[in-house]
Design a protein that fits this description.
single chain; 236 residues; alpha/beta; five-stranded mixed beta sheet; two-stranded parallel ribbon; 8 helices; 7 strands; 33% helix
């Protein structure tokens, strides 16, 4: 919004701007997450964490997968996301009224179709949920030359990218509201992800869009994690 404010001869920094919004009750209030989408109590094989305390150096080096919920008048819907850790671009997604493995598979298939650097090595990182450990999912990922990585325990900072994007989509694009139907939720989600990828600029990307950074890999990586002292570059 900085350029728009300049047109009105208004000079204000980020902190002052947020203080102004806070004083006028214009900030979006955050709510606590209360719907669990991860079931790690299963007999499927759980993979090791290949990316702990490491950060990516390019696009399509590390993808982060996650599931979040969307409320509708007929109950919860579920949104599976595949996000590039370096560019923050959402590569694939699927929203439906179930949380089966097929939901995540469809998101991964879309992500693979959207790859720009298919010859590069790529790690797929997720939690240890039933969907991501299901052999139908892991075999498909491996058949497409993806290395599988999973969190070793529940730690939101190990999957901080997915957590941040979930919050952005919900709080900035009305996906936290109760939506009438699954069909409408799918339509809103499609529009929200297009804006997120192609129009919305990000502080972590030096005010560039994810789609721009995905193709122009000259932005130093900025981690969402609180403890940044021990982070190392991810290399192959």
């Amino acid at each position: 919004m900085k350029n728009d404010l300049k047109n009105y001869q208004i000079k204000i920094g980020r902190d002052k701007f947020f203080e102004f919004l806070r004083n006028h009750n214009l900030l979006v209030k955050k709510t606590k997450r209360h719907h669990i989408t991860t079931d790690s109590k299963h007999h499927f094989y759980k993979y090791k964490n290949l990316v702990k305390d490491k950060v990516p150096t390019r696009s399509e080096q590390l993808w982060v997968a996650d599931i979040t919920y969307i409320k509708t008048d007929k109950g919860h819907n579920y949104l599976a996301l595949i996000t590039d850790a370096y560019s923050k671009q959402i590569m694939g997604y699927k929203l439906d009224n179930h949380m089966r493995t097929d939901l995540c598979l469809e998101a991964l298939k879309m992500a693979l179709k959207n790859r720009k650097y298919p010859e590069k090595e790529l790690i797929h990182h997720s939690d240890r949920g039933l969907q991501y450990c299901n052999p139908n999912y892991t075999l498909f990922a491996q058949e497409n030359n993806l290395k599988i990585s999973m969190t070793e325990q529940y730690d939101p900072y190990q999957n901080a990218i997915a957590e941040r994007i979930n919050k952005t989509l919900k709080y900035e694009y009305a996906l936290k509201e109760t939506i009438n139907t699954t069909k409408l939720a799918q339509k809103i989600t499609k529009k929200a992800i297009f804006i997120y990828n192609n129009i919305r600029t990000h502080w972590s990307l030096d005010l560039n869009t994810p789609s721009h950074v995905h193709l122009n890999q000259n932005i130093p990586y900025k981690s969402y994690r609180k403890n940044k002292q021990k982070l190392e570059f991810l290399t192959f």
